[in-house]
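Technical annex B. To support the medicinal chemistry partners, we prepared a structural model of the target in complex with cytidine-5'-monophosphate, based solely on the information shown next.
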Amino acid sequence: MIIAVDGPTASGKGTIAKALAEHFGLPVLDTGLLYRAVGYQTQLNHGDPDKAADALVACDFPDALLDDPALRYESTGSLASRASVHPAVRRALFQRQVDFANQPGGAVLDGRDIGTVIAPHADAKLFVTASAEERARRRHAEMLGRGVEIGYDAVLADVRARDARDTGRADAPLLRADDAMLLDTSAMDRDAAIAAAIAFVTERT
Ligand code: C5P
Protein backbone atom coordinates (compact mmCIF):
# COMPACT_ATOMS: atom_id res chain seq x y z
CA MET A 1 0.00 0.00 0.00
CA ILE A 2 1.37 3.40 -1.01
CA ILE A 3 0.01 6.52 0.67
CA ALA A 4 0.82 9.96 -0.78
CA VAL A 5 0.42 13.02 1.45
CA ASP A 6 0.96 16.40 -0.21
CA GLY A 7 0.31 19.96 0.84
CA PRO A 8 1.76 23.40 1.47
CA THR A 9 4.12 24.42 4.24
CA ALA A 10 2.85 24.05 7.83
CA SER A 11 -0.37 22.34 6.75
CA GLY A 12 0.15 19.43 9.15
CA LYS A 13 0.97 16.94 6.39
CA GLY A 14 4.09 15.67 8.17
CA THR A 15 2.17 14.95 11.37
CA ILE A 16 -0.56 13.20 9.37
CA ALA A 17 1.95 11.16 7.36
CA LYS A 18 3.67 9.95 10.54
CA ALA A 19 0.35 9.05 12.16
CA LEU A 20 -0.76 7.11 9.05
CA ALA A 21 2.57 5.27 8.96
CA GLU A 22 2.19 4.26 12.57
CA HIS A 23 -1.45 3.23 12.19
CA PHE A 24 -0.87 1.12 9.07
CA GLY A 25 2.59 -0.15 10.09
CA LEU A 26 4.40 1.41 7.11
CA PRO A 27 7.75 3.21 6.76
CA VAL A 28 7.49 6.96 6.17
CA LEU A 29 9.65 9.41 4.20
CA ASP A 30 9.50 13.17 4.77
CA THR A 31 10.68 14.19 1.30
CA GLY A 32 10.97 17.84 2.37
CA LEU A 33 13.97 16.79 4.43
CA LEU A 34 15.83 15.79 1.26
CA TYR A 35 15.18 19.21 -0.28
CA ARG A 36 16.13 20.85 3.02
CA ALA A 37 19.43 18.96 3.02
CA VAL A 38 20.13 20.23 -0.50
CA GLY A 39 19.22 23.82 0.41
CA TYR A 40 21.36 23.72 3.53
CA GLN A 41 24.32 22.16 1.77
CA THR A 42 24.07 24.70 -1.06
CA GLN A 43 24.32 27.54 1.41
CA LEU A 44 27.26 25.98 3.28
CA ASN A 45 29.17 25.68 0.01
CA HIS A 46 28.08 29.13 -1.23
CA GLY A 47 27.13 27.31 -4.26
CA ASP A 48 25.28 25.51 -6.81
CA PRO A 49 22.14 23.58 -5.77
CA ASP A 50 22.53 21.11 -8.66
CA LYS A 51 26.02 20.11 -7.47
CA ALA A 52 24.87 19.96 -3.84
CA ALA A 53 22.06 17.58 -4.84
CA ASP A 54 24.39 15.33 -6.85
CA ALA A 55 26.91 15.22 -3.99
CA LEU A 56 24.22 14.28 -1.47
CA VAL A 57 22.81 11.56 -3.71
CA ALA A 58 26.34 10.20 -4.26
CA CYS A 59 26.93 9.87 -0.50
CA ASP A 60 23.35 8.65 0.09
CA PHE A 61 22.18 11.46 2.38
CA PRO A 62 24.15 10.64 5.55
CA ASP A 63 22.02 10.30 8.71
CA ALA A 64 24.27 12.79 10.47
CA LEU A 65 23.06 15.44 8.02
CA LEU A 66 19.39 14.39 7.96
CA ASP A 67 19.33 14.46 11.79
CA ASP A 68 20.87 17.94 11.99
CA PRO A 69 18.35 20.22 13.82
CA ALA A 70 19.34 23.07 11.48
CA LEU A 71 17.43 21.31 8.71
CA ARG A 72 14.20 22.03 10.60
CA TYR A 73 14.78 25.78 10.77
CA GLU A 74 12.40 28.01 8.88
CA SER A 75 15.37 29.59 7.09
CA THR A 76 16.37 26.14 5.78
CA GLY A 77 12.83 25.63 4.50
CA SER A 78 13.22 28.79 2.44
CA LEU A 79 16.58 27.59 1.10
CA ALA A 80 14.97 24.25 0.22
CA SER A 81 12.15 26.01 -1.57
CA ARG A 82 14.66 27.96 -3.67
CA ALA A 83 16.74 24.86 -4.47
CA SER A 84 13.67 22.78 -5.32
CA VAL A 85 12.85 25.02 -8.29
CA HIS A 86 15.87 23.60 -10.15
CA PRO A 87 14.86 20.70 -12.43
CA ALA A 88 18.32 19.11 -11.95
CA VAL A 89 17.77 19.02 -8.19
CA ARG A 90 14.35 17.38 -8.62
CA ARG A 91 15.84 14.85 -11.06
CA ALA A 92 18.64 13.99 -8.64
CA LEU A 93 16.18 13.26 -5.81
CA PHE A 94 13.58 11.50 -7.96
CA GLN A 95 14.85 7.90 -7.91
CA ARG A 96 15.43 7.79 -4.17
CA GLN A 97 11.80 8.77 -3.56
CA VAL A 98 10.43 6.38 -6.20
CA ASP A 99 12.42 3.49 -4.69
CA PHE A 100 11.13 4.33 -1.23
CA ALA A 101 7.54 4.44 -2.49
CA ASN A 102 7.79 1.13 -4.31
CA GLN A 103 9.51 -0.93 -1.63
CA PRO A 104 7.81 -4.25 -0.87
CA GLY A 105 5.00 -3.79 1.64
CA GLY A 106 4.41 -0.16 0.76
CA ALA A 107 5.19 3.22 2.28
CA VAL A 108 3.91 6.65 3.23
CA LEU A 109 5.57 9.71 1.66
CA ASP A 110 4.84 13.35 2.32
CA GLY A 111 5.84 16.28 0.14
CA ARG A 112 4.58 18.44 -2.69
CA ASP A 113 4.50 16.16 -5.74
CA ILE A 114 4.09 12.66 -4.33
CA GLY A 115 0.58 12.04 -5.70
CA THR A 116 1.35 13.72 -9.03
CA VAL A 117 4.96 12.78 -9.92
CA ILE A 118 6.62 10.37 -7.48
CA ALA A 119 3.76 7.92 -6.94
CA PRO A 120 0.89 8.75 -9.30
CA HIS A 121 -0.27 5.13 -8.81
CA ALA A 122 -0.55 5.52 -4.99
CA ASP A 123 -3.46 3.64 -3.39
CA ALA A 124 -4.54 6.64 -1.33
CA LYS A 125 -3.72 10.32 -1.86
CA LEU A 126 -4.35 13.16 0.53
CA PHE A 127 -3.92 16.85 -0.11
CA VAL A 128 -3.63 18.48 3.31
CA THR A 129 -4.11 22.21 3.51
CA ALA A 130 -5.21 25.09 5.77
CA SER A 131 -5.51 28.83 5.28
CA ALA A 132 -2.22 30.75 5.07
CA GLU A 133 -3.16 32.66 8.25
CA GLU A 134 -3.81 29.47 10.21
CA ARG A 135 -0.61 27.85 8.96
CA ALA A 136 1.35 30.99 9.91
CA ARG A 137 -0.30 30.98 13.34
CA ARG A 138 0.75 27.38 13.96
CA ARG A 139 4.27 27.93 12.65
CA HIS A 140 4.61 31.11 14.72
CA ALA A 141 3.51 29.34 17.94
CA GLU A 142 5.89 26.49 17.23
CA MET A 143 8.80 28.90 16.64
CA LEU A 144 8.06 30.87 19.82
CA GLY A 145 7.99 27.53 21.67
CA ARG A 146 11.51 26.87 20.40
CA GLY A 147 12.62 30.28 21.64
CA VAL A 148 12.84 31.90 18.18
CA GLU A 149 11.87 35.56 18.43
CA ILE A 150 9.89 36.47 15.35
CA GLY A 151 6.69 38.37 14.67
CA TYR A 152 3.55 36.77 13.22
CA ASP A 153 3.62 39.05 10.18
CA ALA A 154 7.11 37.90 9.21
CA VAL A 155 6.02 34.25 9.47
CA LEU A 156 2.90 34.93 7.38
CA ALA A 157 5.01 36.66 4.72
CA ASP A 158 7.33 33.67 4.59
CA VAL A 159 4.43 31.19 4.33
CA ARG A 160 3.00 33.20 1.41
CA ALA A 161 6.39 33.46 -0.32
CA ARG A 162 6.91 29.72 -0.04
CA ASP A 163 3.39 28.99 -1.30
CA ALA A 164 4.02 31.23 -4.30
CA ARG A 165 7.33 29.53 -5.13
CA ASP A 166 6.01 26.00 -4.58
CA THR A 167 2.86 26.46 -6.64
CA GLY A 168 4.41 28.71 -9.28
CA ARG A 169 7.42 26.65 -10.35
CA ALA A 170 7.35 25.03 -13.77
CA ASP A 171 8.71 21.63 -12.71
CA ALA A 172 6.43 19.51 -10.47
CA PRO A 173 4.56 22.39 -8.81
CA LEU A 174 2.51 21.90 -5.67
CA LEU A 175 -0.78 20.68 -7.08
CA ARG A 176 -3.65 18.61 -5.79
CA ALA A 177 -3.89 15.36 -7.79
CA ASP A 178 -7.36 14.87 -9.30
CA ASP A 179 -7.89 11.77 -7.19
CA ALA A 180 -6.55 13.20 -3.92
CA MET A 181 -8.80 13.75 -0.92
CA LEU A 182 -8.79 17.40 0.13
CA LEU A 183 -8.28 17.66 3.88
CA ASP A 184 -8.61 21.26 5.06
CA THR A 185 -7.35 21.34 8.65
CA SER A 186 -8.02 25.07 9.23
CA ALA A 187 -10.75 24.35 11.77
CA MET A 188 -9.52 20.95 12.97
CA ASP A 189 -7.25 20.03 15.83
CA ARG A 190 -4.45 17.51 15.39
CA ASP A 191 -6.46 14.47 16.52
CA ALA A 192 -9.46 15.28 14.32
CA ALA A 193 -7.22 15.70 11.26
CA ILE A 194 -5.47 12.39 11.93
CA ALA A 195 -8.80 10.59 12.46
CA ALA A 196 -10.14 11.97 9.16
CA ALA A 197 -7.00 10.86 7.31
CA ILE A 198 -7.11 7.34 8.78
CA ALA A 199 -10.82 7.00 7.94
CA PHE A 200 -10.16 8.04 4.32
CA VAL A 201 -7.25 5.67 3.81
CA THR A 202 -9.14 2.78 5.46
CA GLU A 203 -12.03 3.35 3.08
CA ARG A 204 -9.72 3.48 0.03
CA THR A 205 -7.70 0.35 0.77
O1 C5P B 1 7.89 20.11 3.45
P1 C5P B 1 9.01 21.04 3.76
O2 C5P B 1 8.56 22.40 4.25
O3 C5P B 1 10.03 20.43 4.67
O4 C5P B 1 9.75 21.27 2.37
C1 C5P B 1 10.71 22.27 2.19
C2 C5P B 1 10.67 22.74 0.73
O5 C5P B 1 11.13 21.68 -0.11
C3 C5P B 1 9.30 23.11 0.21
O6 C5P B 1 8.99 24.47 0.40
C4 C5P B 1 9.38 22.76 -1.26
O7 C5P B 1 9.85 23.84 -2.02
C5 C5P B 1 10.42 21.66 -1.33
N1 C5P B 1 9.83 20.34 -1.56
C6 C5P B 1 9.52 19.99 -2.85
N2 C5P B 1 9.02 18.75 -3.13
C7 C5P B 1 8.80 17.87 -2.15
C8 C5P B 1 9.07 18.22 -0.79
C9 C5P B 1 9.57 19.49 -0.54
O8 C5P B 1 9.70 20.79 -3.75
N3 C5P B 1 8.34 16.65 -2.44
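Notes passed to the chemistry partners:
Residues 9, 31-32, 35-36, 77, 80-81, 84, 111-113, 162, 166 surround cytidine-5'-monophosphate (CB under 6 Å).
DSSP finds ten helices and five strands in the chain.
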